[in-house]
Design a protein that fits this description.
5-stranded antiparallel beta sheet, Beta-Lactamase, phosphorelay sensor kinase activity, kinase, 4 domains
């Protein structure tokens, strides 16, 4: 009895007389079973803490962030003995709702039957708003519970624990349905809290790795943009290259480039992520837009919804592009100032992607793109200067050598013709002298063209020259009229198309029309319009339209149109027009 009492005391020295009496009445088998249960409980706790330690050591080994989150959920379920587990990741936006919900224990087909996953309302939102551990006997009894959707498995016991990265809540661990029935214990809570702390560190490391990888991608794209711009043609094509590269590296749904030094001169030049009409882009007003805001302030702008922000214009809707919401605009800034804006836009449901993006990355990319454009323009100017110097040399050689020799030959032939008695020979020599004079005039005209300071030359002079040249074939001189600021409003890249279309139209009139009058009108206002009208016999039925087809293709490529009106005996009118912007 004395040893028995000593044994009872060794089990629990704090037990009183009543407890000792109860133990004294307990059979030896029951007492042994109680001792074994307590020993097994201690061993089970030690095993769980060892499992936690092993999990922490191997948690983030070679895992991506998504794989790490799935592993954390599985470990939490094992440690707490939960049938179901989930990790809700908070969004980056101001509402702080769930943007990702990683589950464990629910079959994929059941998830598909349930449909849309939780976003952080009801009981789940309670832990978001008050990030502290929460244990419940029955979920349904809590006043914040919304209940479960159709096809959702039944759940009662609940344990929720926030996952923090430093002082910020990254998300929450949710555990339900304790295995074997019953409730989650305080010890379960402690071990899951410890797991959440370790998970926060592992998640931060994984995020830092992904951010470093993302930064490296942007740096690579920024370094590559100069080579890409140099390899492309200058102007709009280079802007398209920038937009395509920016969309690829950012993952945005749409990227567009607006070029201009102020709100009044700002125009849409290029877009990536959709197809569009160049004329519609050029006509889109940009005075009230994110691009205009950036050009005026010189600082990047981020908005959650471009369709509702008072500073923005919904460019995508206006031009029939895919619908977008969140957007970022960054300035194309060089040493000479802001010369435009680069705008990134995402689908409305991708707000978190915008908030997760470091503004410094697209800003640096845009600055490098602006610098590449500036260097490319400088290189083009240098090449053009070399071309002009070569032209000057050729012009001097033609003037000082070729023209002088031709002039001397002409004088010699003219003096010989006066010494010849036969009229027909004298006439032939006179014609040769006239031809030499005409050749000298042509060379001088070529020298003048070589001295022009633009590849497009003076478009008005070029049009006049083509019309005068056509007079020799038509046997009469067409009438020519210019309307508007032709020299200043026709873009250099459009001039070759204008001249080609004019040449084709006059050639058709000379070869097929049998006309006695041709009118040519080149006008510029909102559009560049070239009209060529003759009074000939019209276009015969079944005539080949290769020339007409080329004129239409040139107009289509520039966002314009080519109209041909013809009737037998009433002549032909060709009206070719493209946007002037």
């Amino acid at each position: 009895m004395t040893e028995g009492s000593g044994a009872a005391s060794s089990l629990d020295p704090d037990e009183g007389p009543e407890t000792r009496s109860a133990l004294g009445d307990t059979g030896f088998d029951d007492l042994l079973r109680e001792v074994l249960n307590r020993v097994h409980g201690v061993l089970d706790e030690q095993a769980r803490w060892q499992l936690l330690l092993d999990a922490v050591v191997t948690m983030a080994a070679g895992l991506t962030l998504d794989a790490l989150l799935a592993r954390i959920v599985t470990i939490a379920a094992d440690l707490a003995g939960a049938s179901y587990a989930a990790l809700g990741v908070l969004g980056e936006g101001p509402d702080k709702r769930l943007r990702l919900f990683v589950t464990h224990g629910i079959a994929q087909e059941v998830i598909e039957e349930i449909g849309e996953l939780p976003t952080g309302h009801g009981l789940l939102g309670l832990i978001i708003d008050r990030p502290e551990p929460l244990r419940l006997h029955d979920i349904a009894e809590h006043p914040e519970s919304y209940g479960f959707p159709a096809h959702h498995p039944p759940m009662s016991s609940f344990l929720g624990v926030p996952v923090r990265i430093r002082n910020n809540v990254f998300g929450n661990l949710y555990l339900t349905e304790k295995l074997g029935g019953g409730d989650f214990t305080e010890q379960d809570e402690k071990i899951v809290v410890a797991l959440a702390a370790a998970a926060g560190v592992a998640i931060e490391n994984a995020r830092l790795h992904e951010e470093a990888t993302e930064r490296q991608r942007w740096l690579s794209a920024t370094a590559d943009i100069a080579g890409l711009v140099f390899a492309s043609a200058p102007g709009v094509e280079a802007l398209h290259v920038i937009a395509d590269r920016a969309r690829k590296v950012s993952g945005a749904d749409l990227v567009w480039v607006a070029s201009g030094i102020d709100a009044d001169s700002l125009t849409l030049q290029a877009v990536a992520g959709t197809t569009t009409h160049l004329a519609a882009m050029a006509a889109q007003p940009m005075e009230r837009s994110l691009a205009s805001e950036v050009v005026q302030t010189g600082f990047p702008v981020m908005v959650d919804d471009i369709t509702t922000d008072p500073r923005a214009a919904d460019v995508a809707s206006a031009l029939g592009w895919p619908r977008v919401g969140p957007a970022i605009a960054v300035p194309l800034k060089s040493a000479e100032g802001v010369e435009g804006a680069l705008v990134f836009a995402w689908a409305p449901e991708r707000v978190s992607a915008v908030h997760a993006l470091d503004l410094a990355l697209p800003s640096s990319f845009a600055e490098q793109a602006a610098l590449a454009l500036q260097v490319a323009a400088g290189r083009e100017d240098a090449q053009r200067l070399l071309l002009f110097e070569d032209r000057d040399r050729i012009g001097r050689d033609l003037h000082d050598l070729v023209i002088q020799r031709l002039f001397a030959i002409g004088l010699g032939l003219e003096s010989v013709s006066r010494q010849i008695d036969r009229p027909e020979v004298a006439q032939r020599l006179s014609t040769a002298v006239d031809d030499i004079d005409a050749t000298i005039r042509d060379i001088r005209r070529s020298i003048f063209a070589l001295g022009s300071m633009d590849d497009a030359a003076d478009v008005q002079a070029e049009v006049t020259r083509i019309v005068e040249r056509a007079a020799t074939t038509l046997k009469f001189r067409p009438t020519l009229r210019f309307v508007g600021p032709v020299r200043t409003r026709i873009r250099p890249e459009v001039v070759p198309d204008v001249l080609a279309v004019l040449g084709e139209a006059l050639s058709n009139a000379a070869r097929h029309a049998e006309s006695t009058a041709v009118e040519v009108v080149l006008s510029v206002s909102d559009d560049i319009r070239l009209l060529v009208r003759d009074n000939g016999r019209g276009v015969p039925e079944g005539a080949l339209e290769s020339g007409m087809s080329n004129m239409r293709q040139r107009a289509d490529r520039l966002g314009g149109q080519c109209l041909v009106e013809s009737a037998p005996g009433l002549g032909t009118t060709v009206e070719w027009s493209v946007p002037a912007g």
